[in-house]
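Run log // design_07
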């Protein structure tokens, strides 16, 4: 495991969540729960809680090439409840949604 990349991914997820257009604050708790490769990039799955009694939610950070510490911009959460058995497929769907959006934007130009 690339600990520096994991730390960069978590910081990126925390920054994304803190954005006023998203959660608007850092989560109460966050944990790395998995990782996967897709389209030649590496991704990290995080589960997080918005408060002490809240349910775990799932998010993805990444699009890391090799040992890079800056993701390509595929950090997102749709604030869906975290389920261990579907977390990776949920995150793959998020990444594919982001990729599709940017491909459509590129076609417009």
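design_07 sequence
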């Amino acid at each position: 495991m690339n600990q520096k990349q994991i730390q960069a991914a978590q910081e990126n997820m925390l920054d994304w969540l803190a954005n006023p257009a998203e959660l608007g604050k850092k989560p109460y708790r966050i944990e790395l729960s998995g990782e996967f490769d897709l389209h030649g990039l590496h991704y990290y799955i995080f589960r997080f809680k918005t408060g002490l009694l809240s349910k775990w939610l799932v998010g993805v950070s990444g699009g890391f090439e090799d040992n890079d510490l800056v993701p390509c911009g595929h950090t997102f959460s749709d604030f869906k409840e975290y389920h261990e058995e579907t977390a990776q497929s949920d995150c793959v769907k998020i990444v594919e949604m982001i990729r599709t959006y940017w491909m459509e934007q590129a076609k417009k130009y």
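The beta strands are 29-38, 41-49, 57-64.
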